[in-house]
């Protein structure tokens, strides 16, 4: 998966950070993915991405991926255990 940009607006910023993960940490995890998998069908998020912050914290991010533009839109995120 090639990622050229991360799409943020007020709606997904509020929703994606509800579980205590900041937008900066989500950006770091997306920029440093260790695993990407397709999500279940009929979900807002097309993929689940596991990444790490610069400090090594594992974050799971549900994303909508637009392949033609290589854009990722974070839907929600939480600390992976």
Automatic annotation (TrEMBL):
Q: Which domain of life is it from?
A: Bacteria
Q: Which Pfam families match?
A: DUF4258 (PF14076)
For this entry, the protein name equals: DUF4258 domain-containing protein
Source organism of the structure: Saccharopolyspora gregorii
């Amino acid at each position: 998966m090639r990622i050229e940009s991360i799409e943020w607006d007020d709606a997904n910023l509020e929703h994606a950070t509800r579980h205590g993960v900041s937008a900066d940490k989500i950006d770091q995890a997306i920029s440093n993915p260790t695993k990407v998998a397709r999500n279940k069908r009929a979900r807002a998020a097309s993929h689940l991405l596991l990444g790490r912050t610069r400090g090594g914290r594992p974050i799971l991010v549900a994303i909508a991926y637009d392949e033609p533009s290589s854009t990722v839109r974070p839907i929600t995120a939480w600390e992976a255990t």
